[in-house]
Amino acid sequence: MPRAMSNVWDAYTVTHVLASGSSASGSGTRRWACKYCGKSFSTTTTRLISHVSGVGGGGIFACEKVPPEIAEAIKNEHRLAQQGKEARRREMEATYVELMDDVDPSHSEASQRARTVSQRDEEDESTSPSCHPPPMQRPKQGSLHSSMLSSALQKQRQKVVEIEIERCILQCNLSFNVVRTDAWRRMVKIIAQVGPCDDWHGVEYNRLRGPMLDEEKDRIEVQLEPIRLGWKTYGCSIISDGWSDTRRLHIINILVSSYLCTYFLRAIDASRAGVRITGDFIFEHIKTAILEIGVENVVQVIIDNASNCKRMGKMVEKEFPSIVWTPCASHCLDLLFEDIGKLSWLAPLVSDAKRIVTFIRKNHLALAIFRCHSLVDMIRPVDTRFAYIYMVFHRLHEVSNVLRISAIDHRWISMHTANTELARYVQRKVLDDVFCADIAALVPVLRYIYIVLCIVDKEGSTLGLVYHMYTTMREAISSSTTLSLDRFFLCVYCSVFILYSFIEHDIIDLVDARWRTLCRPIHGFSALLYPFFKGPTLWAQTMVGLERVPNAYEAYGTFCTKRTFQKMFGTLSKFFFSRKQKLI
């Protein structure tokens, strides 16, 4: 509720207006003219009272023309207002202490010990009957004053709770984002509904880490039962990937993906002594997961493209003919980025980009200069991050002008590392037009691959899009105008100047090579069944995977010839294609 304007402005000034224009509150600095001396000021209410009361001080002199009786009346009025304000402050402090005692009884004991002997003696003297003022009459419950007091006490209780919540979060080193979660809101609401309990202080430690954890696991299992039932109706895919935690312990996750969601099945500790992560080791755990889910419910096993994973995939297809092994599309596209970065004419460019980013990020003076001119930071090249080459190139292209401004900044020359060989090399590269032009030419080409990577790496079923997005990406790279046959650039490698042709054919060869590694018969089946892309021309394309249909027939144990495949899905294809033409 905004503060009302004091009545002294209209009583003792000729004119008054807010110095800041407008305000919802009556407080604030005002430009005013004294009613008695006529002088103009720009102050708050406190200094106006000091002026017209004849006291002065606080940055304003006393008015010499104000009548004495008016000055004395202003002093008395101001004194009564200050006493009332102090009484309200003490009342709120006493209420806060009482509430803190309700929350934590030790608070009153600590405050009692913190007082000095003289303070306790003064309190003992003030407890005599003669010193006690007559008790105030309790206001009626239905009065307006009672409701306002109740509202004020409720706000004060909430303030105490907020203080204790803040202390808990700070002392337990919890993230501030925890208060934004729905779980936090539900917890606070339930605790408020329970109300005060004298003999209850929350969940016990042993019960929380033992029986309650098992009970929550059982409740989650019940909630996930519809997802497991969906595996029997629609089928599912088993996904496995390995990673290392902060202690460098190797863990293999096994997940189950279906049209509903991705289900975490279990984690395997592969960091035990004597454990070798071979194809046989991975196969045993994948086989256990397949038998647990049901062989008839599993469509494919998705894992990365390492040699032990390929061996595991062959063993799965041999053991379970109805299940296929599918390489991870995201991992294949990430390897495509790494293959492009290893091209002889591109490796020096990648090396220069890494040197520039590493130098600026590790040199705090250079980083401070860069941040003075840029609102975004440099992206650190991390080998374990997907498509880090594109991210580094894209950010360098985005801040190329900022890098040039930083390199010619007078503070760059005054750095203690400015005369080192690395600093001079970074400065030359940043100001090199050829280097910036090469980055600008590569970013649009790599963007096509990055878009496909983002699509296949997201949550949901994207198997039917792999072929269509991959072929679209290849066509876009082939028709790119940023990489042309007549474009040449001069690169430096091992102190030898070599002239390279900057063409797109090297990238296209790598794209085709990675497609041969990624392409499986299931991609062809999914591409043909995807409703949006259905059409007669799709059957004539050779990269769909139909040239490998005999292998697909063996894997599925269903189809025998290409004609049988077309007979079963041709009618459905024509139906979707006719519906698409009608919509168009």
UniProtKB/TrEMBL annotation:
Sample GO molecular function, one term: zinc ion binding
Signal peptide: none
Domain BED-type: 3-70
Protein name per the record: BED-type domain-containing protein
Organism from which the protein derives: Ceratopteris richardii (Triangle waterfern)
Database matches in Pfam families: DUF659
Region named Disordered: 100-149
Domain of life: Eukaryota
Keywords annotated in UniProt: Metal-binding, Zinc, Zinc-finger
